Amino acid sequence: MSVGTSTLPSNAPDSVEHSPTVASLQIAPSPHLSDRSLSTQRMMIEVIIALLPVMAVAVYVFQWYAVTSIGLCILVCLGAEAGLNRLAGKSQTVGDWSAVLTGLILGLSLPWNAPWYVAVVGSLAAIGLGKAVFGGLGCNIFNPAMVGRAFVMLSFARELGAAAYVVVESQLTVVTEATPLSLAKQFAADLAAGRVTAGDARLQIESAERFWALLVGQVNGSLGETSAIAILLGGIYLLARRVISWEIPLGVVLVSLVCVELSHLTGQTLLSPMNHLISGSLLFGAVFIATDPVTSPVTRWGRFVYGLGIGFFVVVIRVFSSYPEGLMFAVLLMNATVPLLNRWTIPNPLGGPVPKKG
């Protein structure tokens, strides 16, 4: 939103009648772009380009399963967007690529063997419940991809539970073992029952070989979360292109490292802070999900606090709940606080704060 004024120059002749100040008020939903060359379509395409390394690793590790799941999510999101726009009598917004990006992120957040109907229902929920009911892109409160992911997570708990990621007999050797976070949960339960010692458990889940596998993507998990290197490459690209703000990823990473270190020292978790950071969807969410310009704060301090909140809730859910992962719920929880964060962190105008009346 911007306000402009137009007045006559001070050296105008006296014979010219001075017209009153004319105010120009422009109101539009977010994202608010200061650079006119950075359109919504270009922003979406830039994020898709940044996701190319993540998609490449997903296809390499999970092969045809990744192609079908991601492709189905994108197609259903495009169809849902076009159909709902037509039902509402609105102009088509398929060309802004936001539906493509929603389907892509949703597909990357699903397990490699998610049934086709999970992808379809999740995509319909993402576009219908996450975006269309609020009025479309720029009016939605919650991240659409995470709305779809949460909907299918609660609706198809068996298909998306920790056991669904594992297939003992498979040509894909990476899926014969549990995800790193599920494995850590299992070792914690075994340790509490006295079946293993703390030293043996930490040795098996924090070995150098496993750390390298987490970096390159040779571990089980959702399609887009396995390779920390691929995610970082995409994040560097987005920061270099000034598509995302650095405050949100920094806040997520900082508070998660601190909270995990405290939990690690007190014996609440077996994983070290670095292993927590590159395991699961924490890094993927910090770069590609939490930075959504529509559902994140517009002020600098607001974005930083928003990132801190996401990192905090991720660790709390991972450590103290029965869920091995917490990124999805953390993002949705902090989405709800965005209006409050924007109000609390309004920057002072040039020249100091506005004097209070009375």
Structure explained in plain terms:
The protein is mainly alpha-helical. The chain folds into two domains: 40-160, no CATH class; 177-344, no CATH class. It is built from 17 helices and two strands.
Short overview:
This protein is mostly helical and 358 residues long. The chain contains 17 helices and two strands. The longest helix is centred in the first third of the chain and has 25 residues.
Widest sheet, order of strands: 1-2
Structural class: mainly alpha
Low-confidence stretches: 1-13
What is the molecular shape? globular
Mean pLDDT over all positions: 85
Work out the strand percent.
Answer: under 5%
Keywords summarizing the entry:
358 residues; mainly alpha; two-stranded antiparallel sheet; 2 strands; 56% helix; globular; disordered N terminus
Layout of strands and helices, then pairs:
Blueprint: E1 2-6, E2 22-26, H1 40-50, H2 52-62, H3 64-88, H4 98-108, H5 116-128, H6 144-155, H7 157-160, H8 180-192, H9 198-205, H10 208-216, H11 228-240, H12 247-265, H13 273-278, H14 282-289, H15 300-320, H16 327-335, H17 338-344
Antiparallel strand pairs: 1-2
Helix pairs in contact: 1-4, 1-11, 2-3, 2-11, 3-4, 3-5, 4-5, 4-6, 5-6, 6-16, 11-14, 12-14, 12-15, 15-16, 15-17
